[in-house]
Amino acid sequence: MLDRRVRSGAIATAPDPYHPDMSDERRSGLPPRLRSRLGALLAATVVLAGVVAPAAAATSTPTARAMASPDGTRLVRQRPCPESEFTCVTLRVPADHFAPPGGPMIDVTFAIHRATSGHRTGVFVTATGGPGSSGIAAADPYTAYFDTRIIEQDDIVFFDQRGVGRSAPLQCPDAAVAFYTSPHVPTVSAGEAIAYAADSARFARACIRESGVDPATLSIYSTRQAVEDLEAFRRWLGASSIDLYGESYGTQYAQQYALAHPDHVHSLMLDGPVDLTLDDHAYYAEDVRAFDTVLSRTLDACTETRACRSDLGRVGDALAGYDQLAARLRRGPIAYDFVRADGTIERRSFGLADLELAAAGYVYDVTDRMLLERAIAWATRGELLPLARLAYLSAGQDPETLAAIPDPTWSDAMYYAVECMDYDFGPGSAATRTAAYLRAGRAADVDDVRLGSIFYGDLPCADWPVGPGPGRPPALTRTPFPVFVLASTWDPATPYAGAVRIAGRLSDAYLIVEPGGPHVIFGRGDACPDDLITAYLVAGTRPASRRVTCDFAGVDAYVRLPAERVGQYRDALAAMRATDDELNIDADYWAWDGTGKLQVGCLLGGSMTYRPYADGYRVHLDGCTFSRGLALTGRATIDTTDGTFRLVVTAPGGTSLVYTRDADGRRSVSGRYRGSPA
Predict the structure, then answer these.
(1) Residue 407 lies in a domain
(2) Which contiguous run of DSSP H or E holds residue 245?
């Protein structure tokens, strides 16, 4: 839940490649971002009501069930997933698993990586977040972090939930960006709430129209239906049981699968878990306060760090700086200089909605939090461009054209198709449900809470043209299998309190906690909790205690801002180190999919262009200015194989420099700086 790109959207940002206290995702050769880095998925060619793609010849395997089952499920095709180690298996399943046989069918695609030992001892299934994310897009990068023993003995399975990616996708990116960038903030006043509700209603209508879905079929996208697709795949695979890992919304999916098919679950892993006992309004009331808490902790960590505190200038307190900016924006937007990709500057406006979009999108992960700290520090200097760029990224919006950025691995339409069925938004007309939702917001007292507008994220469900499903399922309590509940005390989207409640209700639970961790914690390269889950999957070894606490830091090490003016650098090395930092931790660079080229305006003018090459990325600078009086032109090389960096630049005023950073982090510079030897 809450993995959509709205005022609570997650952007999966990769860590800094060279600071020693940050992880080494780029060194693995993976491009910057998990959600959209993997290249375009092929659009699914299957729709409802019996209009289907021609069946491809199936590749036979010892466990493949090619014959149709009693409910009509059958194998459509089995072929290698493009640019992947996985095999894509498409099954044709009933569109409504609870209707009499013979009705419409839908194609759903699963990705499987067979046990490399040749002898399967288990099946490890991952349900990714959202709702609306592509599991198949995450399959290879996620599996790269698994212990090789898991890959040797288990079949590894990911899937695109119906309505996503390769499974008859629904998409409405244009409608979504228009809604997510609404300037109205419902917590400011009653008038703003009414205006926001009107935007919400327009989005619901526009999203359904853009996706092309028949409103009469929207009920088939509930989690209740989707878990039966996994059950159909389990039967096809011939596996008696599965180890089911869910992250974020995937924990809601996993719990519902376990409730429906407990005899076919070997173990359950709930990472960033959703508490099924809460209705939508209760969930969001708790969620808003979790976002506020994590935002406060993030900015307090900035203030407690000397380097960050120094960048705050006279403000001296990051949270106070945020609050002062928010208070100013409540009175109206602020004009700022936006640097376009060609280096030219245009005036744009930055509003309270933009601030909340940036802040909510960048508190999920430890590196994101550091980027948010830096953007707030920039804002205390009067520079709003870094915050604006975080807002564009959080919205999935092209900062140049302001159009939606195509992302075939994510579906906003599916987010609402699932949410609006899984939760009950009340009886009556759309106007009645909208009024009830707004009253619930006032009753939850979220107006004075930072990021309180998150409470209204599901308001489009008041206008969604389908009634609620069968209601919230009961909570898991007694289970014939162990349940591992993984949680972070700094989780904004699925609050830690919910994980504690879930573990407390279960008869056989292990609570694994990362104080200060990201939204989900397994499979990110941290020995704890990865070793605990691996020990169970490989050897059935359970943790020694029912509660395990892992060490973790809440925010990545802060990286200083460049000097405001060139004369503030003590020497050429300091100036080039600052340039090194800016090129390597630029937020657009981390959100880029790593293909083609990325051209971005520099903070104070000029541009930088990133292009991939065999060992990393090459960067061209054209008048790129991070500090006034230092407009750099030249080239840089980011080598992701060994972590080295090289920069060759010139600047007006007699600057011509060669700067290097080696694999051990040692830095050197030579040439002339402002007319004198460096």
Answers:
(1) no
(2) strand 242-247
